From TrEMBL:
<dbReference type="GO" id="GO:0016149">
    <property type="term" value="F:translation release factor activity, codon specific"/>
</dbReference>
<dbReference type="GO" id="GO:0005525">
    <property type="term" value="F:GTP binding"/>
</dbReference>
<dbReference type="InterPro" id="IPR041732">
    <property type="entry name" value="RF3_GTP-bd"/>
</dbReference>
<comment type="similarity">
    <text>Belongs to the TRAFAC class translation factor GTPase superfamily. Classic translation factor GTPase family. PrfC subfamily.</text>
</comment>
<protein>
    <recommendedName>
        <fullName>Peptide chain release factor 3</fullName>
    </recommendedName>
</protein>
<dbReference type="GO" id="GO:0006449">
    <property type="term" value="P:regulation of translational termination"/>
</dbReference>
<keyword id="KW-0342">GTP-binding</keyword>
<dbReference type="GO" id="GO:0097216">
    <property type="term" value="F:guanosine tetraphosphate binding"/>
</dbReference>
<dbReference type="InterPro" id="IPR000795">
    <property type="entry name" value="T_Tr_GTP-bd_dom"/>
</dbReference>
<dbReference type="InterPro" id="IPR009000">
    <property type="entry name" value="Transl_B-barrel_sf"/>
</dbReference>
<dbReference type="Pfam" id="PF00009">
    <property type="entry name" value="GTP_EFTU"/>
</dbReference>
<feature type="binding site">
    <location>
        <begin position="135"/>
        <end position="138"/>
    </location>
    <ligand>
        <name>GTP</name>
    </ligand>
</feature>
<comment type="function">
    <text>Increases the formation of ribosomal termination complexes and stimulates activities of RF-1 and RF-2. It binds guanine nucleotides and has strong preference for UGA stop codons. It may interact directly with the ribosome. The stimulation of RF-1 and RF-2 is significantly reduced by GTP and GDP, but not by GMP.</text>
</comment>
<dbReference type="InterPro" id="IPR027417">
    <property type="entry name" value="P-loop_NTPase"/>
</dbReference>
<feature type="domain" description="Tr-type G">
    <location>
        <begin position="4"/>
        <end position="260"/>
    </location>
</feature>
<dbReference type="GO" id="GO:0016150">
    <property type="term" value="F:translation release factor activity, codon nonspecific"/>
</dbReference>
<keyword id="KW-0963">Cytoplasm</keyword>
Length: 509
C-alpha cells in the first residue's frame, strides 16, 4: 500500500537551536532544493525556504507551520516545520496532531531548554516517537555524555547514540557512524562535510575510550522501543556544516513509522480503512497575497484520495468537491491528482473549512484532539480609521480561523477583544493586518486578564449566570459564551460561587 512509504514528521526545538537550518538541509539532501543558503544570509533568494511571511523574513524566525513534501529513494517525506517560539505553541500543538513522528533538535551547548521540554510532552501525550539531533557539535559545547544523560533524565527516555562527535568546537574532527565505523571528516576553509569519509579511522585514545563507554553504557537501538516512544536514537552533527542531515533522512526512512491509526469518534481510524477520511489541522490565508487565497491543510488518515471527489466536513454537513487539491513545497505548490494516508494536502476554500473539521465520504466520523486553549493575554483592538470596520472584522475572523488569535465579542461595548497565548502573536497580528488587509490598528489594554468557556448541563443555570455577569460576558467567533476574568484568582472565586457552571480552559474544536 502506498501509505507504507509515507513518513510524515515534524521538527521541534527551542528557538535558535538550528531547526530552520536543519529543515533547509533536509530538503537539500532530499533533493527538493538546489541551494542551501544560510537562514540569515542576505538576499531574498537565500532566506530559509520555509519562512515566507514578512515578519519571519525580517526576524529570521519561524512563526507559522510550513508543509514541505519531497521524495527520496522511493519514500515520500511530508515535513512539517513548526514554530520554535513558545508564543506559537498552539499552532505547534495542532501540527503535532498531524504527524507520525518527530525530530527533536537540541543545541550542543545548551542542552534541553524549556520549549523543547514542552513540545516533547505534547509528543508524549500522543505517543509520537522521537529521533534526537544534537546540533552545532562543531562549536564549543557540553560533553556528549552530559547531553545524553540529560535527555535520559529530563525526558525519562532510554537513549541510544547512533553517531559520535570526534572532538568538539575547535577540536572537531568529524562525526563517527557507530553502526558502520565510518568517520565523516570536515574539509576546506569552511570545515564542512564535502564527502570525505574514512573507513575504520585511527581515533585518538580518549575518543576510542568514549565510544567504548557509550556503546556499553547506553541502550542498543530497538525499533519497537523507539516506535512506542520509550527510546530515542540520538544523532550528533552540524546542520550548518552538513554533518548529519543525510543520515537523519536515512534514519527516518528506515525506522520512523508509516501512518498510524488516528483518534476519532466512534472509534480510531486505521490507514487501511477504505473510506477517505482526514482532518484540518491548520488554515492559512494569503500565502499568495496577490490572490487572497485561503488554504485548509488536511492530514489524510485513510483511503485513497482522488482529485475532484466529494467530501463532507463536520462543520456544516454539506459535501464539497475538492477540485484543486495542493501538495506543498513551502510556498510553491502543485495540484495533486491523488493522495494517500499520511499525506498533507491543501484545499483552497473561502471560509468553508476550519481548524478541527473532519472530512469524510460518509460524514459518520469525527477526529478528536484539536483543542482551543484559553488565552493568556487579552487586548482591545483600536481601529485608526473607523471606515475600515468591515475589513477589520474579516481580518480578525480569518486569523482566528487560522489559530493566530482568538476573537471575543463582548456582550456590552463595541471594542472587540483579542486573545493570544504569547506576546509575539500580537506583533504578527498587527504586521499581517497592515501587510495583508491594509488595516491600520493598535492594541490597548483590556480590563480582563484571561478567559474561560462556560457551559452548564441545565440551560437555566447558564442563563442565570450570564444574566448576572453580563459586563464580563462575551461570545467567541462560533457564538459560544465566554467569561472574561480580571485575574486567574477571579476565575476560581466565581467558579466556587457557581458550582453548576463549568469553566473550561480548553475547548474541543
Amino acid at each position: 500500500m502506498p501509505s507504507s512509504s509515507r513518513r510524515t514528521f515534524a521538527i521541534i526545538s527551542h528557538p535558535d537551536a538550528g531547526k530552520t537550518t536543519l529543515t533547509e538541509k533536509l530538503l537539500y539532501f532530499g533533493g527538493a532544493i538546489h541551494l542551501a543558503g544560510e537562514v540569515k544570509a542576505r538576499g531574498a533568494n537565500r532566506r530559509a525556504r520555509s519562512d515566507w511571511m514578512k515578519i519571519e523574513q525580517q526576524r529570521g524566525i519561524s512563526v507559522t507551520s510550513s508543509v514541505m513534501t519531497f521524495e527520496r529513494e522511493g519514500v515520500t517525506f511530508n515535513l512539517l516545520d513548526t514554530p520554535g517560539h513558545e508564543d506559537f505553541s498552539e499552532d505547534t500543538y495542532r501540527t503535532l496532531t498531524a504527524v507520525d513522528s518527530a525530530v527533536m533538535v537540541i543545541d550542543a551547548a545548551r542542552g534541553i531548554e524549556a520549549q523543547t521540554r514542552k513540545l516533547f510532552e505534547v509528543c508524549r501525550l500522543r505517543s509520537v516517537p522521537i529521533i534526537t539531533f544534537v546540533n552545532k557539535v562543531d562549536r564549543e559545547g557540553r560533553s556528549p555524555f552530559e547531553l545524553l544523560d540529560e535527555i535520559a533524565d529530563v525526558l525519562a527516555l532510554d537513549v541510544s547514540p547512533m553517531s559520535w562527535p570526534v572532538g568538539l568546537g575547535s577540536d572537531f574532527q568529524g562525526v563517527l557512524d557507530l553502526a558502520t565505523g565510518r568517520l565523516s571528516r570536515p574539509e576546506g576553509d569552511s570545515r564542512t562535510f564535502q564527502g570525505k569519509v574514512e573507513d575504520a579511522p585511527a581515533l585518538p585514545e580518549n575518543i576510542a575510550e568514549e565510544i567504548e563507554l557509550a556503546q556499553a553504557g547506553y541502550a542498543e537501538f530497538d525499533v519497537d522501543a523507539y516506535r512506542n516512544g520509550d527510546l530515542t536514537p540520538v544523532y550528533f552533527g552540524s546542520a550548518l556544516k552538513d554533518f548529519g542531515p543525510a543520515e537523519l533522512i536515512d534514519a527516518l526512512a528506515r525506522h520512523a513509522p508509516p501512518p498510524r491509526p488516528q483518534p476519532a469518534e466512534p472509534a480510531p481510524i486505521a490507514p487501511d480503512n477504505a473510506e477517505v477520511t482526514g482532518f484540518v489541522f491548520k488554515v492559512q490565508a494569503n500565502m499568495d497575497p496577490q490572490h487572497r487565497d485561503r488554504i485548509a491543510f488536511m492530514r489524510l488518515c485513510s483511503g485513497t484520495f482522488k482529485r475532484g471527489m466529494k467530501l463532507t466536513p463536520t462543520g456544516h454537513g454539506k459535501p464539497i468537491a475538492v477540485h484543486s487539491p495542493i501538495l506543498f513545497f513551502a510556498q510553491n505548490r502543485e495540484v495533486a491528482d491523488e493522495a494517500f494516508p499520511g499525506d498533507i494536502i491543501g484545499i483552497p476554500n473561502h471560509g468553508t473549512l476550519r481548524v478541527g473539521d473532519t472530512l469524510s465520504e460518509r460524514a459518520d466520523v469525527r477526529f478528536t484532539g484539536l483543542p482551543n486553549f484559553a488565552p493568556e493575554i487579552l487586548r482591545r483592538v483600536a481601529l485608526k480609521d473607523p471606515t475600515k470596520t468591515k475589513q477589520l472584522r474579516k481580518a480578525l475572523d480569518d486569523m482566528a480561523e487560522e489559530g493566530v488569535t482568538q476573537v471575543f465579542y463582548p456582550e456590552i461595548g463595541s471594542n472587540w477583544i483579542i486573545g493570544v497565548v504569547g506576546q509575539l502573536q500580537l506583533e504578527v497580528l498587527l504586521s499581517r493586518l497592515e501587510a495583508e488587509y491594509k488595516v491600520d490598528a493598535g492594541l490597548e489594554p483590556a480590563p480582563f486578564d484571561t478567559a474561560r468557556w462556560v457551559s452548564a448541563e441545565d440551560a437555566a443555570d447558564l442563563k442565570a449566570f450570564t444574566d448576572l455577569n453580563r459586563s464580563a460576558m462575551a461570545r467567541d467567533r462560533d457564538g459560544n459564551p465566554v467569561f472574561l476574568a480580571k485575574t486567574a484568582w477571579e476565575v476560581g472565586y466565581v467558579a466556587d460561587r457557581y458550582p453548576k457552571v463549568k469553566f473550561a480552559a480548553t475547548r474541543e474544536r
